Every structure is written in C-alpha cells, then in structure tokens.
What does this fold into?
Amino acid sequence: KRAMSSTTNHAKAEQAKALGFNEVVDTSLEKLGDGVRRITSGYGADIVIDGIGGEVLSEALGVLALGGSLTTLGYSASRKTTIDVTNLIVPQTSIRGLNMFAQPQAAITRAWNVIVSLLKSGAIKPIVAKTFPLVEAAAALRYLIEGRPFGRVILTI
It folds into this structure.
C-alpha cells in the first residue's frame, strides 16, 4: 500500500513528496484519474480522502478501485459537485461524509487527546504556510484565495 496525494503545481508536489507521500499527481500536468491509473497500473485507489470538494470530488470518485471508498470532509473548492452514479454502481464503490464535530462527545474528546499528544511529541507537525496578525485578516484571506498556499494560514491575536 502506498500513500498518494494530488496537487495543482510542481512546487506543491515537491512539498508533498518531502512530507512522505510515495506518489503525487500534479494536476497541472495530468488529470487526476490519469495520474492515479498510471501510478497504480490501472488498479485505482482503495481509499480516497477528499477535503476539496467541487469538481475534485467528482474526479476522485472516478479513481476508486473496485469496492473502494471515498470520504469527503471538506469543500474548500465548492460545496456543489456533480456525481456520475455509474462510478458508484459499476465498481461497487461508496462515498460518505465525515464531520468530526457531529460525532459523540466522547469520540471527539478521544480524537483531540490523540491529536494533542501527537502534536506535543512532534510525531505530527501542522503545515503553516504563513502567519498574519489578526488586524491583517483581509490580507490573510486574500493570500489564501489568490496564493492557494500549501498549508494553513494562521491569524495571531
């Protein structure tokens, strides 16, 4: 099993590889489906986690292997998408949404405890693209929209 990622340009692809992804599909060079099929020799992806939504979600559904599953947990590109149900029915795939905050409180608490422990130990590190003071929130939003950074944009108080 290998971890794959997709991104929109070469610089972000290099950053993803540096973070440990075995393979990265640069969608400025090839379509997501073409890249996944190339990497997997036509097999597809068993599991897809999508935090982008919109057209990317629709494309991601089409890269699933037989019996694969797609979990969507965000929609930074768009809340709306068009799904070809053939991509669900024929390969017997599934799609589900995940909202951590809709989980039982005990599950949320356990998840946060694990996340905080991993952060404190250094096992995981948040990827921060840029930090702005709160008074520059408009500039931060502009940077987020126009720059499409790799990582989070942080506002400090």
